[in-house]
Amino acid sequence: MDIVNRLLNWVVPPTSLVILAFAWPALSFVSACEWLYNAFYPEDIDDKVVVITGASSGIGEQIAYEYAKRRANLVLVARREFRLKGIAENARRLGARHVLTVAADVVREDDCKRFINEAVNLFGRIDHLVNTASLGHTFYFEEVTDTSVFPLLMDINFWGNVYPTYVALPYLHETRGKIVVNASVENWLPLPRMSLYSAAKAALVNFYETMRFELKEEVGITIATHGWIGAEMTRGKFMLEEGAEMQWKEEREVHVTGGPVEEFAKLIVSGACRGEPYVKYPSWYDVFLLYRVFAPKVLRWTFRLLLATHGARRASLVGTGRPLAIMEGNGRHPSITEGNGRPLLLEGQSPRKLFGSPSHASPSSSQRME
Ligand SMILES: NC(=O)c1ccc[n+]([C@@H]2O[C@H](COP(=O)([O-])OP(=O)(O)OC[C@H]3O[C@@H](n4cnc5c(N)ncnc54)[C@H](OP(=O)(O)O)[C@@H]3O)[C@@H](O)[C@H]2O)c1
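Above: query sequence and NAP SMILES. Below: predicted holo structure tokens.
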């Protein structure tokens, strides 16, 4: 290492910490003033045009309702059009001025051009783009048997945000609009069995942080980072290593209402209207940032401890509201089933092990996949 860097290693960290300590009160004061001003004068969304991807369930659906209550014009995008129709009806009842639904795949650039063009043709402008489309997974990286899932997960979780943003940006510049991004706390607090998801979310945050510089505040960016808050993703919509999206069909038809999802959607929309750079829920996760920087081993030990017991895995099913029964599987991994004996995929359990075991009375694949 050259002498200059050696010297800087000694000088820069303590000097920066001292400067930060002195600047902290002034910075906090400026932030508080900004926050107060934005809280009193948030953006009025009435009659503005909001495009929401991933609006057919979970957080995206609730975000649509929040904008509807603020009397926005909505463009709801997802692949399941029948779900969008029902959500559009609800949004109209809640106060949305007009609602356009577009069945589209955000991974396809042409589809993104199509829904953005349809939005502009109908409403003449775009004020907010809310990116919510996503897909999680719960398998260990080494368990993957088909590597084609790698790009698929990155496509949905990363490129599925980048394409709509790219296509919408010229219109967002015209309105000095906003982009809302649904990242996850896993962008900096990675959990086991979510390697590709966490990587995509980290890429997403870095992408939009770079965009903040490039867009020079002409287009605002609000990044939402949250932990598990209970939507489809927590209700069983995950990816198998074979590459298909896994879900219990009836779970996908469930409308999630109440509780943290609604609350979080409200936080996101009001945060975006106030021009906040980040919306965090819950914010106490931030304390683990200190552990990540100064004591990363503690985080690793904690995860190992938590994931070492089956009890922790079972706890992840609490909240599905379904009758559960424990059924002994192959003797090594007891499996959890619904009352009817149908196996449930646990958060954090290998789908291959669960579905591959001949001792389980598992349903045919057409019952499980769409
Ligand atoms: N729920 C949580 O606890 C949690 C925690 C941390 C972060 N997040 C983040 O919050 C966001 C929303 O999560 P959620 O729980 O609400 O998930 P969700 O209910 O599974 O919703 C995902 C949405 O994305 C859509 N989608 C998926 N692939 C798509 C594609 N290729 N093209 C178009 N639409 C697509 C789905 O609709 P179709 O299937 O109809 O296309 C669905 O509307 C995600 O970005 C997620 O990473 C959630």
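Residues 3-40 form the longest helix (38 residues).
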